[in-house]
Fold this protein.
Amino acid sequence: MLARDGSIRGVAVLHEIIHEVRDFLSGWRSTRYGLAGSALPISDLPQPPELCFPRSSAPVGDVGPAVKAGDAVVTGQALWSGGDVLLPCPVRGRVRSIGSAPDLRGGALGPAICVEPEQGPATPAFQPLDPTSADVGAVAGRLREAGLLVWEQEPRPLVGALRPASGLDALVVAAVDREPGVCSQIAVFRESPSEAVSAARLLARVAGATALLAVPESALADAENACGASVRALAVPQVYPESLPPLLALRAGAPGRVAVVALDVALDALRAVRDGLAPSTRVVTAIGPHRHTAGVWRVPLGTRLDRVLEAAGLHPAPGDEILAGGPLRGHAQYTTQAILDGGIDAVVLVGSREIVPFEPEPCVNCGNCIDACPIHLQVQLIGRYAEFGLFDRTSEFHIDQCIECGMCASVCTARRSLVQYLRLARKELRKAAAENAAAPPAAPAAREVTE
Amino acid sequence: MPKSPLFVVGAAPHWRTRSSIPRMNWAFVLCLLPTAVLGSVAHGFGPKAAALGATYETVGPLVRILSVEMGVGSGPLWMLGALGTLALATGAGILAEYACQVVMRQPYRAHDGHAALMGLLIGLMLPPSVPWWVLVIGVFAAILVGKAVFGGQGSYPLHPAAIGVLILLASWPGYVYPVENSSIASAHPAVVTVTALSGVLLWMTGYIRWQIPAGVLLGTLVTSLALWGPLDGDILGQFTSGHVVLAAVFVATDSTCSPANRKAMLAHGVGIGFFVALIRAFGIWPDAVPFAVLLMCILNPLLDRWRPLVRKVVA
C-alpha cells in the first residue's frame, strides 16, 4: 500500500475499492444520459487582450485571409473570405499577426489571424433591418454577410441550410442542448424566451417553412407561453441523443425536409438583422471532473481554451483529457491554447482517473449497443464487418442512417471504438461509391429481414 | 506557443461505461458463489463428501496433515468436499485457457475470468463424487474444443460449459449421473432458489437481460404443462431438479452464444425451455439442459435476424 513516492495511501486504496465495487454493480444501466432542463445563470468572460480566428473555424473551400498583419479592422470586416463564405471580425481593433493555431477538430496546425481588440462597447456593423418586414433576399444577404454558420459534423453556411434547392417543410430552432451535462442553449433560452421565438420566426421566414422551437420537456410550459401563433413549441424528451439534429428533424417532419438550427446561431442571426451586430460571443458550459457542471460563460469568439478553464476553476493536470465540445461528440485537445470557435458549446475536463481506455477486444455480442442505439442499428454486426474490412456488408445494415451520437461506444462492454469503426465503413463506402460512379456499377443485392 | 502539460487525447465518446469483459465475467463468477457455497453445504460437510466420492480422497491427505499434524481445527475444512470439486474445476479452467494461449501463441487473457466461469459452471453441473481426472478432462475439453479453437470469447458458436458436460456425459455417464447422487447446483431446492436470487442480482447489475431467464422458465413451464402425462405431472420438479434455473440465469445468458436483440433473446430462452421439457419427457438422458442449450445456440444466428425496425433519419 505504498505509492511511488513512498507515502501510505490507505485512504486512496479504500476509495479505489469502493469505486471498483460501484463500477462492478453498475453494468450498462448507469449509462443513461439526461439532458439539462434548467441552467445556471450566464456569467460574462472579459475580453482577452488577443483574439484569434483560425482558418479552421470557417467552412472548407477556397478561403484565404482578407487582411494583413498591422491592418486596422472594424466590426463586421471580413477576416477570412472566399467564394460564398466570409468570417467577419466581431470587434474593432488591429491585426497583430497571422500566426498558427491548432484545429479544434483534429489538431493540425493551421493559419490563424490574431486581432488585438480595442476596449469599448459593441458597435453595429451593419445597417439594421426590420426582421418582420424586410425583403427575404436582403435578410439572406445579411446572414451571409454576418458569416453565420450551422455547425454539425463540419461548418456550412446558414443560408445554404435554410434554403436548399429542394425546399423545406419545417425549421427547428433548438433550445435544447445537444449533449448531456451541457446547458448552454437552455441558458440562452431562459434568458429571453421571447427573443428565441422572434429568432425562430425570422429564420422560418427566410426558409419559407413552419417555425418550431424545440425545448426540453420541462421547459415546454415556458416555451408555449412565449410562442405566438406563428411558432409552435416542440417538446424533446430529456434523454441523449433525442436532442441531436437528425432526431429533432425526425420529430418535426419528413427526413430531408427539415432544417435544424441551434438557438445561439438563430439569435446571432436575429441580432445581425435587427440590430446590425456581428456575432461576437458564444455561450459555453464548463464541465469539470465527476461530470459536474462548473458554470456557463458568455465567451468572446476567438478566446483560447485556457481562459474558460481558468474562469471555471478547472485546472487540468497532466494525464487529464480536455475536450472542446460535449462529452459524447467533443474533440480532445492536446493543448489549452486551442481557440474556441462558433461550433463549441461546451468545454469538458475529464480527470485522468475517469478516462476509460478503448481496448482491442473482440465483440462479445452482449447487445448493449443495440439497446442504446436511437436508430436501432445492428451495431455489433456493423462493427465486426468494419473491423474485418467487409465494408460492402455494412451497407446491408442501414449504416447510412447512423447519426454518430456515440451511444454504442459509450455502453460497449468490450470497450470497442464502435463510432470510429462505423465512420471508417461509411468513408470506405463513400469512396467505393465515387469509384463506382466512374466505373460501371456492380451493386450487391441487399437482403434484410426485419420484424 | 507556451508549453502545456501533456494531456490524454482520445476519441469520442469520452464518457463511457466502466464495465468491461473481465468485469462482466467476474460478476458472473461472484454471483455464482452463493450457489457454490450453499450447494457444497447441502452436499454435507467434508466427511460426508468423502464418503461420497473421489475428489475428496485427493485432498484427504492434505486435510489430515492440516488437521492432525499441524493442529488446524477441522472447522475451516468442513466444506472441502464439494467446494474442492468446484475449486479444482475453476482452477483447471484457468489453467486450460492459459495452456491454450501458450500453445496458440495468443495474448494471455486467462485473468479475464471467462475460463474460470466455464470451469465453475462445469463443476456445478457435476456431482461432487466425480473423480478429479474426469473433471479436469471435461474442463480442458470444454476450453479447447468449445472455446479456444474458435478464437475465444466472442467467437465460439456453442456454449463451452455445455460442450464440456456433454463430452463427459457421453464418455463417463456413470460418474456424471450416478444413481444415488445429485450435482452440486441441484443439491437442494434451497440451492436452486439462491441461484434464482443471484440471477436477479445479475439482472440488476445489467450484465444479463430478463428476457432469456424469463423465456427459459416460461418455456419449461408451458411445455411441461403440455407434457403432463409423460412427465408424470411433476411440474415443480422440473425446476428444482436438474439445472433449469442455473441454465436460465448463467448458461443461456452467455453473451457470445445468445442473441443480441431483445425479442430474439426471448425466443432463445423459450426455445431452451421447450427443448428441456421435451427431452426430459421423451429423451433417454437424465438431464436435458446441455442439449437444449446447444440446440438453441445453433439456432441463434437465425434468431438474431429478428431485428427491430430501423428508424429512418435519412431519406
